[in-house]
Write a structure and sequence with these properties.
single chain; alpha+beta; two-stranded antiparallel ribbon; globular
């Protein structure tokens, strides 16, 4: 029985020995999610989530990041999930079409605080959550992806798995929680029309984090449920996919860790822009040209992704704007990537007008996703070109620990101040040594 094997794996996670590389990657993804929550607190979806959590009140048991308040676990998971995906800053698992961190880390953080767990308990739960979330959407198969949002569905099951680990459930109670996760799984692709990113933050981060925590707390409160929601009559997989692949749920459990296949974004911008920004910086490193020397910039992106970032109203998903400020500043920060004021700056507009986006059919057909080619034609007749195949931060070209910390400090510094941001980063890197998460969480909670 697939549900039995999956639940036994989750039940064993609190005692599992994580390989050193997996443990390091888990700490990086927790830090990356916390950094996304911090920066998200300054954006409209994050501000609304904190306002909502503060207005609802309730039992003060779990912290809202950068919100300075404690609320019930489900509400904290909801708010932190929306903070984590208030922007395009969080991690991605390309193969499964999920953003696992923005749902799983908030759920795990809430239950680790509520249950008084150790830092290592938290990390083990996060790893288990990634394993379940990413396998779940693969088990549904690509045939269903035009109808449902895998981002929210995978996150719901991953958050539930992480929550179950931290509640210390046995295999049967985990199966019940997974059944409650299935009953809450949803996601309609209409979120693509949300220009304000608020509903998207709820769908990708807040809703699945809350639903996963709710599923676990139902069972903790004595709720019983179906023993196997993945097989048998009217099962979840058959309901959501015309051609499910149930075996994907348990393939490689305990030996293939999905967190290792998850990308950390180097830049706080939309995923299709990552490789283009990487390419432009590589050109500048090789040939530090001035903006005045640039005649034209041509950006080639996969044809199916180019429209997502073509001259959008949001700065961080506007490839022409991002390339313009990057070439002017010779770097890319959270501030420059999110500045509505600079989108109106005459100097930026002048260079932005020289950035041309080309949807590339050949890049779209490549088995390696999200490539980019940047060509800069100079006024003296040179052509500077860079083709980024595996963007920095992907499993094929991972960021160093120092680069992950640098990104986190850029996102956290304006929110917490430099000293507290540095302390959070240092504590995150030693999270496996923490006898309790409570001190760490109190740092993250500070407004």
């Amino acid at each position: 029985m697939i549900a039995e094997q999956l639940s036994e794996y989750i039940a064993a996670c609190p005692q599992s020995e994580l390989p050193p590389g997996v443990l390091l990657k888990a700490k990086q993804h927790v830090l990356d999610a916390l950094a996304a929550m911090a920066s998200g607190s300054r954006l409209e979806p994050g501000r609304l989530a904190i306002r909502y959590a503060r207005g609802r009140g309730g039992n003060p048991e779990c912290s809202v990041a950068a919100g300075g308040l404690k609320v019930p676990a489900e509400l904290a998971a909801l708010a932190n999930g929306m903070l984590a995906h208030a922007d395009e800053t969080d991690d991605t698992h390309w193969e499964s079409k999920t953003h696992p961190g923005c749902a799983i880390v908030p759920a795990a953080l809430a239950l680790a605080e509520k249950e008084g767990r150790t830092g290592l308990d938290l990390l083990r739960a996060v790893v288990a959550g990634y394993d379940v979330a990413c396998r779940l959407t693969r088990a549904l198969g690509k045939e269903h992806w035009g109808l449902h949002s895998t981002y929210s569905i995978g996150g719901t099951f991953g958050a539930a798995a992480a929550a179950c680990c931290l509640c210390g459930f046995d295999a049967r109670r985990i199966r019940w929680a997974l059944s409650y996760a299935a009953q809450q799984a949803s996601g309609v692709l209409s979120w693509v029309r949300d220009s304000g990113h608020v509903e998207k933050a709820f769908d990708f981060g807040g809703m699945p984090a809350r639903n996963g925590v709710t599923a676990a707390l139902f069972v903790q409160s004595g709720f019983t449920a179906v023993d196997d929601v993945f097989e048998g009559e009217n099962n979840f997989l058959a309901a959501y996919s015309p051609a499910p692949r149930p075996q994907e749920l348990i393939e490689g459990l305990g030996s293939r860790y999905e967190i290792l296949a998850t990308s950390i974004k180097r830049f706080p911008v939309g995923a299709p822009i990552q490789a283009a920004a990487d390419a432009a910086l590589l050109i500048l490193k090789r040939d530090p040209i001035s903006p005045a020397a640039i005649e034209q910039v041509t950006v080639r992106l996969p044809a199916d992704r180019a429209g997502v970032v073509n001259d959008r109203e949001m700065p961080d998903v506007n490839v022409q704007y991002i390339l313009a400020v990057l070439l002017l500043d010779r770097r890319l920060t959270f501030e420059s990537a999110h500045s509505a004021e600079r989108m109106r700056d005459p100097e930026v507009l002048a260079l932005k007008a020289r950035v041309r986006l080309v949807p590339d059919e050949e890049l779209m057909r490549s088995p390696i996703p999200r490539q980019a080619i940047v060509e800069i034609a100079t006024r003296d007749g040179r052509l500077l070109r860079e083709h980024v195949v595996s963007v920095r931060g992907t499993p094929q070209n991972p960021m160093s620990n120092e680069e992950v910390e640098e990104k986190a400090l850029d996102l956290m510094g304006p929110v917490y101040g430099a000293e507290r941001a540095r302390e959070i980063v240092e504590r995150a890197q030693r999270l496996d040594e923490a006898g309790s998460v409570l001190d760490f969480v109190s740092l993250v909670r500070a407004a």
